[in-house]
Amino acid sequence: MYLDEYPYFVTFRTRVDLRLFEDEEYAELLAKIMFNAGRLKQYDILAYQIMPTHVHLLVFHNNNSTAPTERRVPGIYKPNPTRDSAPAVGNENYTISQFMYTVKSYFAKVLRVKYGIPYSIL
């Protein structure tokens, strides 16, 4: 059940409590991907906290095509979702599950391609 009139509080962690986000480069990459996915999937990031082994998000579904996240964050990372994911843009009403899938799958893809990390860590 999805209740888009309320914000969602989401927590996710790394596999086996890997302290991945102690490295600022990975934390900044994840933040850019979260804000860009929010813009693409029409979710506003109200607040977030990236801890060494997990992430907290407070997000709100926004049906406007120009979400505030686009105006707040310069240099937004441009994701290229996998063929298996939902379309990156469009007028579809995306669920919180689709938003989180986009964030986590694209972050894992960038880690594999750019940093050579061969396994899923989220």
Keywords:
122 residues; alpha+beta; Alpha-Beta Plaits; three-stranded antiparallel sheet; globular
Question: Which band does the percent of strand residues land in?
Answer: 15-25%
> How many beta-strand elements?
3
Biggest beta sheet summary: 3 strands, antiparallel
Q: What name does the CATH topology carry? A: Alpha-Beta Plaits
Mean pLDDT: 83
Going across the biggest sheet, name each strand in turn: 1-3-2
Order of helix and strand elements from N to C terminus: EHEEHH
CATH first level: Alpha Beta
Count of helix runs: 3
Question: What this model shows, in words?
Answer:
The protein has 122 residues and is α+β, with helices and mostly antiparallel strands. The chain has a single domain (8-115), classed as Transposase IS200-like (Alpha-Beta Plaits, 2-Layer Sandwich). Helix content is 35%, strand content 18%. It has helices at 24-41, 68-72, 96-115, and strands at residues 8-13, 43-50, 54-61. The chain has a 3-stranded antiparallel β-sheet, with helices on one face. Helix 1 (24-41) crosses helix 3. The two termini are 24 Å apart. Mean pLDDT is 83; it is low at 65-87.
Quick structural gist:
This protein is of the alpha+beta class and 122 residues long.
Question: Helix and strand layout, with pairings?
Answer:
Elements: E1 8-13, H1 24-41, E2 43-50, E3 54-61, H2 68-72, H3 96-115
Antiparallel strand pairs: 1-3, 2-3
Helix pairs in contact: 1-3
